[in-house]
Structure formats: structure tokens, C-alpha cells
Amino acid sequence: MKRILFVAAATMLLAGCPSFYHEEPKTPPPIIPVEPSEPEQPTTPPPIDVVPTPPKQKTINWASAMTPLVNQMVSTNGVENGKVLLVDSAKNNTNGAFSIQNATSAIINAVDNSHYFNVVPQDVVSAARRTLGLSQDDSLVTRSKAIGLGRYVQADYVLYSVISGSNEQRDIEMQLMSVQSGEILWSGKNDIEQ
Fold first, then answer.
1. Which domains does the chain have, with CATH numbers?
2. N or C: lower Cβ tally within 10 Å for the chain?
3. H/E element holding 91?
4. Please, are residues 128 and 158 in contact by the beta-carbon 8 Å criterion?
5. What does residue 86 show for φ and ψ, rounded to 5 degrees?
6. Beta carbons within 10 angstroms of residue 71's beta carbon
7. Does the global pTM surpass 0.70?
């Protein structure tokens, strides 16, 4: 019997019997009037943090590297004037990133300014790349791909370019190849100044 009473009492205690609950009436909190204080004196704003100037980006002077090489190339014996030249996208073999389009455009401008070759227009090259399934930013450009592209656009020569080195010291190597035979007719190398 003691057990039953004990279990019943424990059950009522744990269940929170409403008969033992006593609710107190709620009273609103007292309102305490606050005296206005003197107006605050304007404080000087904290000094503004100066935003540091970002590091100056180095611009690459592509034309100064490309023009001497193109001048050497056009003065090479065995290279015929007025032939069709495909300027293939420059290949980046450096440990840094830069715009391959800017490098390729500088090569095309230097060749155009020499008035020695008829350069295949870039829109024709882009269309041929799409047709052959070659990406515009193909980082695995090879000589055989360049010659195949040259054959597709019916060029006489292909100018293959590789940029190598580091962010601090880059150089460019160009090779003029015959599309018909794949023979390297001229090769040159120059430093790229920043």
C-alpha cells in the first residue's frame, strides 16, 4: 500500500497537478520618469582608415618583344613575300597568367605592319578552330595542331609561338613552319620586357 501511495504522490508531483498551481495577478511594471540630460557634445569622428593603394599591375609591352622577331623572320632567306600566314595562338609555358589574346594580337599587328605576309583573319581562324574541335584557349597547342589548322585554312606558313619563363622574366620563342612540309624555316627568341 505504501508503494501505491508513493507512486500516486510522485505522479501528481511530476505531472504538475493544476490544483497546486497558484497564479499571481500580473501587474504592469512601474513607470519611472527620466530627466533629460544635457545634450551630448559632438565628438570628433574617429579617423578614417586609409585604403591602401593596390599594387601597381605590371603591363607587358608585347610589341617591343614581337617586332624585332618579326623583322628577323621576314628577312630570312627562303621565306617568300606575299604568302598566306596563319598566326597561331601563343602558348603560355610560364608559371603565371596573362592574356594570350593580347600576346597573339601583338604578333598579328607586328606581322601586319611588316607588309610581308597575308595574315589569315582571326574570325576565319576562330571558325576553323570550332570546326576542328579546338578550344580558343587551348593550353595544349602543339606544332602538329598548328600545321593541321594551317592546312585547313589553306595557309602557306604557320607562325608558332611559345612564351616561357616566370612572372619576373619571360621570353618568347617563335617558329615559322611550312604548312606543306612541316619544316621549321626560321626560329627566333626574345625577352619580354614589363
1. 62-192 (3.40.50.10610)
2. N
3. strand 91-94
4. no
5. -100, 120
6. 14
7. no
